[in-house]
Every structure is written in C-alpha cells, then in structure tokens.
Please model this.
Amino acid sequence: MIPKGLAGRLILLGALCACLIALAGGWLLRSGLQSAMWHGFEQRLAERADTVVSRFSPASSWHSDTTPLIYAEPRSGDEFGRIFSGWYWRLAGEQVALRSRSLWDADLAQVRAVGTHGLTALGPRGEALMGIAQEVVLAGRTLRLEVYGPAAPVLAELRAFDRLLAMIFAFLLLAMTLTAVIQARIGLRPLARLRDALAQAKDGSRERLGRGYGPDLDPLATELDELLARNARIVARARSHAADLAHALKKPLALLRSDADTDVAVPSPQVRSQV
Model:
C-alpha cells in the first residue's frame, strides 16, 4: 500500500532507492569476489597441471604416435596419488586415455564447461569439483589434460561472504532508511511552518503569511498573501454594503415602530409603502 502523506512517499522512495543501490552494489561485489576466487583457484590448478605434465615421459626413447606414456608417481606421494582425495587429472587424446590414481576405478560425472577453460564436475563421492582443461604436447602428440580440485573450500568462503554481505546489506538498508526519514522530516519543516501560518491566518491571529519558508515555498506564500488580501477586500466591501443596507432598513422600520406605538391603527397603505 502506497503511503498517502508526502513524507511517507519520500521515505518509501528513499528506502526503495537504498534497497536497489545496496542490491546492485552487493551483486557487483560478490561477482568480483567470486571471479577473483575462481581465478586464484585456476592458478593453483594450472600449477598442478604443469607438475602433472612434467611427470610424463614416453615409454621408449624412440617414440611415435603410438608410444605409450609413463606417469612417474612421486616417492613421497601427493594428492593425485591418494584415492578419492578430491584432486584428479585425466589425459585424453588419440589412442591415449590416462587418469590419476586418485580416481581408482571410478570416474567423474556431470562434467560441464565454465567459461573458456573452466570445468565443473562431480567426484566419485559426489563432491563438487572445479577444474581446468589444457592442450598439452607430449611425445609429439597434442592431448587434452583436465585437472580437478575440490570446490568445497571456495564454496564455503563464498557462503561466508554471502552471510557477511547480507548483514552489511541489512545495516545499509536500515541506515539509508533512517537517513531518508531524517531528510523527509527536515526537508518538510518549511512546509509545516507554512501550514501553521495558514492556520493562524484562518483563525484570525495573523493577517499575512510573510516570507522565510525557503526559495521553493516563498513564491507560494506570496500568492497566498495576495489571495488573503483579495478576500479581505471582498469582505470589507461586503461589510460596507451590509452597513448601507442596515441603514436603509432602519428608517422605514423606525417609522413603522413609531406608528405601532400609538393607539391609532396604522393604515394598511402606509404599511405597504414602508414595506
């Protein structure tokens, strides 16, 4: 329901503007943070992709398009060597289909492209994954390498930021609404003073509204003063006419009263003449 008063409408308009500004700012801020976090995670995946590529070597020194590739597992082990660790890679190409030990006998599901090189997928345990895809050259062959990592930390940080953003949004909305209330109250004070002056002119305690209501309302006050002066002139003329009429009525009424005070009956022609 739209408020009827001018102050209520100004407050509502201010609250709506504050809400729109806060929502737009929050959306831009979250988009920027999400992009920065995704870019940072992509950098980590790219570093791991370089490490994975460096561990590949052909099975023989005389290699061809059919020469098998060997992946050298690090002695101390890493995240790609632990089963279902959340870190996975897949290498695919013509006559090549390799994957990290961490996948074991499972595979990824619901692999989708995000942007140019980004990927999303579900791991063997249904966990959310974020990945990248790169074209790599190994043993003279161009292959596609996909490297994935757990998306849970990034999503948890985004959820924490969303909660913080919601608190900031509520605070800003409350603060800007209170600011709109204060602005409406202070901004409408000259109008309230003009209304009080008009009420005083109505009950006769003042004749003119005067000035001093601000550049926006002073012209209106001047117009109202001219209207009050015009009404005063009309009332004065009406009073003058009423006084003349009263004086014109007094003489015939006095004659009738004088004739009525005598014991002699007043002739009807005389009564009609006076009436």
